[in-house]
Amino acid sequence: MAFITLNKHKLRENYISLDNLFTSRDIEWSVVAKVFCGNPEYLDVLVQLGIGQICDSRISNLEMIKKLSPEIETVFIKPPAKRNVARIVAFADVSFNTELETIRMLSDEALRQDKIHKIVIMLELGELREGVLREQFVDFYASVFKLPNIQVAGIGTNLTCMYGVLPNHDKLLQLCLYKQLIEAKFNKVIPYISGGASVTIPLIHKDLLPAGINHFRVGETLFLGTDVYHSKPFPHMHNDVFRLYAEIIELNEKPAIPMGELGQNLTGHTVSFEGVPPGSVSYRAIVDIGLLDVEDGHIRPIADDMQIVGASSDMIVVDIGDNAAGLRVGSLIEFGMDYMGLLRIMNSDYVDKRFEETTPRRLEAAPNHAELSFAH
């Protein structure tokens, strides 16, 4: 069975690195834990780090966090679905919102549950995903401030996730100015400007982050050590907190070019072998993981002399060249992942989740038995 491992020591070092960075700039931050997909053992590692606030986009995952540590503040980081309003109020202390009708329902439900539900109102700054349009923003706030049991804890924005619109000083300065406008017009205090994410971290290093941005939501950089803005690793952080291992279930020397007339494959593509020398052969290892678990473009073999050459629903084929490592059926191949690869793998029930100390030290044949709070 394929499995993924988490290195707790490396995760802690990444966490300390980020916490020191944010603390030095008087920025508070929360961990976006959706890559854990509610896995209680992995979530407990976050709890043990002393994190005060955890974000997720699945309410069942926030429910699991509350079971593990009721004192951790939970944040639902996408506009709530109306059918989930009762559970949102029950398990999310804060939610990100863009629809007035939904906020009214949250208000009604908070009254029923005798709670104050905190919200962050998202502003559209060009990514064209979630966000209230700027020309509607003041009227939107005017309506929200009238609702009982709703506390406006912050203003926020999302960038990069869909179209790749990058954050910059000007865009984030706009967010700060809108916060000042709302506070002045309504005589209210809005504690947080949640304008930071993993992609925004390089702006801190370059002193380009407006002073008003005081809250970050970070997932990818914590878990993968990635400089998302420049699509490369941060040199001072671990990018191998997670590793994926898949077992070789077939290993043979085979031709590099298939034989016969080629049509569309399982994914609807017609593969071209232009430039591949006729008659070339190599060792091809089939491993026990497939497109049902992860898209092959989001994982890569760690070994430089290996490359993925094909995939189907339950198997991935890896070209291992002349097999200089002497791999055999039952050996493990180690893979790295990008953020989407990690998310898909963690969401697969067919991939075991372990800690690194259970990883075999040598990748050989398998054995016979197989503190932030929005409380202001």
TrEMBL record:
Any one GO cellular component localisation term in the record: cytosol
Gene3D superfamilies in UniProt: Alanine racemase
MF terms in GO: alanine racemase activity; pyridoxal phosphate binding
UniProt-listed Pfam families: Ala_racemase_N
Keywords tagged on the record: Isomerase, Pyridoxal phosphate
Domain Alanine racemase N-terminal: 9-225
Cofactor: pyridoxal 5'-phosphate
Protein name: Putative amino acid racemase
Domain of life of the native organism: Bacteria
Database matches in InterPro entries: Ala_racemase (IPR000821), Ala_racemase_N (IPR001608), PLP-binding_barrel (IPR029066)
Organism: Taibaiella chishuiensis
